[in-house]
Write a structure and sequence with these properties.
The chain is built from 16 helices and 23 strands. By secondary structure, it is α+β, with helices and mostly antiparallel strands.
């Protein structure tokens, strides 16, 4: 077929692209999760699995047509050269970034260790853009980026994805929290799209007594039929636990959630998870290309498959919910009813979605931009404050000004300052929309101001303290504690 196309097609074709497309088409006809790894995607998979890459050490986001630096990673090559949050990368190696996605930009910024990349920076307050040449270095991808105490004895840990470093990172964070007085845990798996199968087993084992079933897998080839149990004791088997999930929770974190729920080890709060219960095995075809082929289906300890029906791909990708009547019924170790064939259903459902105005402002990067201006004293209200790095033991020189600390509240003054910012930047909204989104706007503003002043973790901590899903988790922790006893 390839020869036929090469000989008879009306214009010249790239043989490699033709072969790659053929492989992709064949795999797509099987299921939504068998896929082809070309050199670029294979390299990306390896980065996620080993937890590191070579690049500049910056977090970027596309805000309309601007590629914005959200945060430079402290100690990374970009940070050492003075790249700041809020900088706009207008060009990468002389090519404009206006028409490319953040993923495409990421691919351009990453590359072999020791190689150079030139970026053009547009910075507010400077008359013209400036160019910076940065040497790529090894950058760690943290699988467990955030862990802190929400209250004096309630810990919070967020697992972004499952990589080869997840269990090690998790254990380090847990030790820190225990030393700070943690006696209960909220484990956040929202937006976690999966990763390595083995790590999901190890994280489940952290909470389950030795011998507890975690997951079983079964395939047409009996080689893939396996059952996995907890192998260790004396970890965190008696720690009250609530797990947070949402529609972005898929695959490996669903294994953890299913094991916790079916063993009655903790409670699940949030929304239905994605519903990916298929296991892929990566088969290398060459040193830098491979095929990830679905080789088995996995089942939670109660025997349920959580895989959603993918007969109609449009429904599958839109994550349409499966009616309860169409889902199989199973029972947990203590007899609680759980449903299969549609993801993990939470024990306590808390739907989380943004108001229309909030979503619009987030996509435009407005909260981030305002936060940056606020901490740089570039809004009328912010000039009345002193920020931590500018405070002094001699407060007389700051007469009439207030030093911002962690008790800072986004009040009506801040909201009016923000409205003034929207007006000056010709960002339209109506009063009804703003009123409906008021509490969300306050949370977003507090997160951005705290992130700018004390780092991303402090911003997230402030945000989570008013997160409706987290608040529900705190409420049901006493019930989770009873499950253990």
């Amino acid at each position: 077929m390839v020869s036929l196309v090469e000989t008879n097609y009306y214009q010249k074709v790239d043989r490699k692209k033709l072969i790659y497309s053929s492989i992709r088409g064949m795999l797509q006809s099987l299921d939504p999760h068998s896929y082809f790894l070309d050199p670029d995607h294979f390299a990306r998979l390896r980065e996620e699995q080993v937890g590191k890459y070579y690049g500049l050490g910056i977090m970027i986001q596309k805000q309309e047509d601007r590629l914005v630096v959200i945060s430079p990673i402290e100690g990374g090559p970009a940070s050492r050269l003075g790249i700041q949050a809020g900088d706009i990368i207008s060009e990468i190696n002389g090519q404009s970034t206006k028409s490319i996605t953040s993923f495409e930009a990421m691919q351009k910024l990453r590359g072999p260790k020791g190689t150079k990349v030139e970026i053009t920076i547009v910075r507010e307050g400077l008359d013209k853009p400036f160019k910076v040449t940065i040497v790529r270095e090894e950058i760690s991808l943290h699988s467990v980026p955030y862990a802190f105490l929400l209250q004096k004895d309630i810990g919070y840990i967020f697992i972004r994805n499952f990589s080869s470093t997840t269990t090690k990172e998790f254990e380090e964070k847990m030790k820190q929290l225990v030393s700070q007085g943690m006696k209960k845990l909220i484990l956040d798996l929202r937006g976690n799209g999966g990763g390595t199968f083995v790590q999901s087993i190890e994280i489940s084992d952290e909470f389950l007594p030795k011998g507890s079933p975690i997951v079983s897998i079964r395939g047409r080839n009996k080689y893939y039929n396996k059952e996995f149990e907890a192998l260790n004791n004396s970890q965190y088997e008696n720690l009250p636990l609530v797990v947070l999930i949402d529609r972005g929770t898929a695959s490996a974190p669903e294994i953890v959630s299913g094991a916790i729920q079916d063993n009655d080890r903790g409670l699940i709060v949030g929304e239905n998870s994605w519903g990916k219960g298929l296991v892929q095995t990566v088969f290398p075809l060459a040193p830098n290309i491979a095929v990830a082929l679905t080789t088995a289906k996995y089942f939670t300890p109660s025997g349920r498959s959580i895989q959603r029906d993918y007969t109609h791909p449009e429904d599958y990708y839109l994550n349409k919910k499966v009616p309860p009547k169409q889902r199989e019924v199973r029972y947990t170790r203590k007899g609680r009813k759980v449903l299969g064939e549609g993801g993990i259903s939470p024990d306590y459902k808390v739907e989380y979605s943004f108001q229309k105005l909030t979503a619009s402002l987030l996509l435009k990067g407005v909260f981030f931009s305002y936060g940056q201006k606020f901490v740089r004293h570039k809004t009328p209200l912010s000039k009345k404050f002193i920020f931590p790095d500018k405070s002094s033991s001699s407060q007389n020189v700051y007469e009439g000004k207030k030093v911002i600390d962690h008790n800072f509240v986004v009040d009506n003054q801040v909201l009016e300052d923000f409205k003034n910012y929207l007006k000056n930047n010709k960002i339209k909204y109506n009063a009804e929309e703003f009123a409906a989104a008021k509490e969300e706007i306050k949370r977003e503003l507090k997160r951005e101001i705290f992130s700018s002043l004390w780092g991303l973790e402090e911003g997230l901590k402030a945000y989570r303290k008013s997160d409706s899903v987290v608040l529900k988790a705190i409420e049901v922790l006493p019930e989770a504690e009873k499950l253990i006893s």
